[in-house]
Amino acid sequence: MRIDPLEYLRPGTRGEALALLAEHGAEARVLGGGTDLVARMKLGIVSPKVAVDLGDIAELRGIREDAEGLTIGAGTPLHAVAQSPAVVSRYPSLATAAASVASFQIRNRGTLAGNVCLETMCWFYNQSRQWKKSRPLCHKAGGEPCHVVNQPSVCYATYRGDTAVALMALGAQAEVQSQGQERRLPLEELFTGEGKSPLALAATEMITAFRIPAPPVASGNAYRKVSHRQAVDYPQAGVAAAVVLAPGGGTCVAARIVLGAVGPCPVRAREAEALLQGQEITGEVLERAAQAAVAVARPVNNMTFGAPSYRRKMVRVLGLKALVAAVEQARQGHSQGDDR
Ligand SMILES: Cc1cc2nc3c(=O)[nH]c(=O)nc-3n(C[C@H](O)[C@H](O)[C@H](O)COP(=O)(O)OP(=O)(O)OC[C@H]3O[C@@H](n4cnc5c(N)ncnc54)[C@H](O)[C@@H]3O)c2cc1C
Q1: pLDDT above 90 (res 231)
Q2: Burial letters for 269-300: b for 16+ Cβ neighbours within 10 Å, e otherwise?
Q3: Ligand 1: distance of its center to the CA of 151 in Å?
Q4: Do 86 and 210 fall within a single domain?
Q5: Model pTM?
Q6: Residue 43 sits in which domain range?
Q7: Is residue 298 domain-shared with residue 194, that is, in the same domain?
């Protein structure tokens, strides 16, 4: 196999990293823990000329909580996110999502930004160069056809990251920087919705942190996922729910439901959310919302395991489980006189 030469750079500060990205542009890739990028490089799926490893930049790691909410550095390892007392108690959806990624070793090395920026995947794309020689290159790999859906120039590769689904339901924003410029992107705007280039980031930009607003009083959130194996496996489907209840804990004031691994990006189920808003929460109402969420799932037949029909069914099951858990947490906070 041909190995493309790689220049490996390890800046010590955020400023140095941004300068390197400005200098190398599209030839460079940001390296977080490398658990996704290095695997893709080994298969020859991606061959950057330059890797900018953020591992030495201490200012990109850590979790801080203040009155406005939580700030998590982009380079914070997933295991630190999953075990943070603040995340576990107030943002359990994120703790569950982070704890469900791969294995302990990968969570120890993999970063929150690396997980959110996970490339979309497809059976026909995530293969070695040798394997891909057996048929015309697919659209994501630089060709025309899609081998999954009979539609040229469209890519249906699936986004299978766990934490972005929870972050989107929590209303999080990504802090994005390039040299001399800074912007904040709501998670919904970080994704293009397109399998070929899933992230709305320029080659010279990187994520430096995620900001999650403080959860309102009597609110709850939860994430549920299904995968082929119990552990070390990507989601076949994942659902995050976040709810806010009115005083008394009976009526839903606001809700967010986000689906993952059933399309090229995490997607909000807005009609399902609307079914909850202003409603007295009953099992039937939650069932209806979970069922309605299925309408925005767009799974295609591009995974080794997980037929589209199964994944659609699981959206309802996971959605109901996530909603029940979120409502339970919200009611507990309410009955304990939650003073957040
Ligand atoms: C066996 C196995 C099982 C896995 N199971 C799961 C799973 O269950 N769920 C899941 O979600 N993932 C899973 N993964 C994928 C991956 O390991 C994780 O998503 C991990 O969190 C990626 O983080 P990283 O820091 O290692 O990313 P990297 O590999 O370093 O980077 C991933 C991508 O993010 C970009 N990136 C990294 N940091 C930044 C930044 N600060 N700004 C902008 N772009 C950035 C990189 O350029 C690259 O394109 C699995 C991987 C393996 C090998």
Answers
A1: no
A2: beebbebbeebebeeebbebbbebbbebbebb
A3: 29
A4: yes
A5: 0.96
A6: 1-55
A7: yes
